[in-house]
Amino acid sequence: MVSYSNFLWQLFIQFSMVSFLVVAVAGLGAGAGLIISSQKTVEFFHLLNRWVSTRHVLKSVEVPRDADRAAHRYQRWLAAGFVLGGFVSVFGLAAGLDASAVSAAFAQRAFVPVVAIAVESAKWFLIAGSAFGIVVGAMLIFYPNAESTLERYANRWVSSRQVVRSWDDMHMTLDRLVEAHPKPAGWIIASPSAAAVIFGLIVLTRNY
Prior knowledge:
Layout: H1 2-36, H2 38-48, H3 54-57, H4 68-73, H5 75-96, H6 99-106, H7 112-142, H8 146-154, H9 160-163, H10 173-180, H11 182-207
Helix pairs in contact: 1-2, 1-11, 5-7, 6-7, 10-11
């Protein structure tokens, strides 16, 4: 377990350093572009600043669909399906899924511990969900009237479009400031980015 922890820690450090270096190189490129060719770089920023409406994407999700009638009509069969499917899933996952074997079959040797942890976590998450399905199915079989009480608390409509309404507002203050002063903004972005690139390269060459 200690070796797994060390491997995960090393993997996290490498990923963090590479991500840091990629962001620094991107910042250096953006700053240099603003200094050397301000107009073309600003036009490139305009191409990237495209507005995508989340409200339009989520519109179909907001349409209410009534499935209560079918659920009430076949309540016993639905409950039996929950119980049977839950038992099959629990026993199948607990007895038939070996996380180590799955990770060894689908991952390279260096990444086997990471994949094994992910598979094992997913396995127990699915087992917990299947057990919850068994409980719900048993409740519907032995206490049919409990469905109405459950629906009274569960069937509440929450509008995601209302929650993310403010996400569609575009805040362009910083972009306008960069467009008004492209060369000073380029130096401000490029200078720390160059220092970050040099620092990242030094750390990577020393440790790896």
